[in-house]
């Protein structure tokens, strides 16, 4: 009878372990999905912000370009056109970010860095470990009792 009970306990234990592994995997998948959703929403907000900024800056740039051009022609001072150059770079950047391929190019560059320049991504003193965290916690804690 003890053998049957023991066999049943082992089977129960095995089922519980399988359930725990499946549950942990499901939880990890949910966390990854949630993190990706948050990342996508943040990127959408960044693109939307860039497009909105582009509208206001585009209006400012248009008014400034017309005013500076009119002033340069009226006063015969071509130097008044100089501010249009840096403003046009800002406008072009914002347009590329909001409507162009800048984000795709940045993604491609980031992937290239991850593949070919891995050493530049390493943390000082390497990855954080449980032991290094515990050591820092013990050094900072006033209530730590060493057993």
Based on the model shown, name its key terms.
single chain, 147 residues, mainly alpha
In a nutshell, what does this entry contain?
With 147 residues, the chain is mainly alpha-helical.
End-to-end C-alpha gap: 43 Å
- Please give the count of helices: 4
Structural class: mainly alpha
Mean pLDDT, to the nearest integer, reads 90
Q: Which residues sit in consecutive blocks of at least 5 with pLDDT less than 50?
A: none
- Number-wise, the strands total 0
Report the β-strand fraction as a percent range. under 5%
- H/E element string? HHHH
- Using only C-alpha atoms, the radius of gyration works out to 30 Å
Main β-sheet, in a few words? none
Q: How would you portray this structure in words?
A:
There is one protein chain. This protein has 147 residues and is an all-alpha fold. The chain contains four helices and no strands. α1 (2-75) runs antiparallel to α2 (84-98). It is elongated, with a radius of gyration of 30 Å. The two termini are 43 Å apart. The model has no long low-confidence stretch (mean pLDDT 90).
């Amino acid at each position: 009878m003890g053998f049957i009970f023991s066999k049943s306990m082992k089977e129960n234990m095995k089922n519980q372990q399988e359930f725990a592994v499946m549950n942990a995997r499901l939880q990890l998948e949910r966390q990854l999905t949630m993190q990706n959703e948050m990342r996508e929403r943040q990127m959408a907000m960044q693109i939307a912000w860039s497009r909105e900024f582009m509208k206001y800056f585009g209006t400012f740039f248009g008014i400034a370009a017309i005013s500076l051009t009119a002033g340069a022609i009226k006063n015969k001072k071509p130097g008044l056109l100089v501010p249009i150059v840096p403003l046009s770079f800002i406008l072009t950047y914002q347009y590329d970010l909001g409507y162009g391929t800048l984000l795709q190019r940045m993604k491609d560059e980031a992937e290239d860095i991850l593949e070919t320049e891995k050493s530049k991504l390493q943390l000082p003193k390497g990855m954080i470990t449980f032991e290094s965290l515990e050591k820092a916690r013990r050094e900072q804690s006033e209530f730590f009792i060493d057993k």
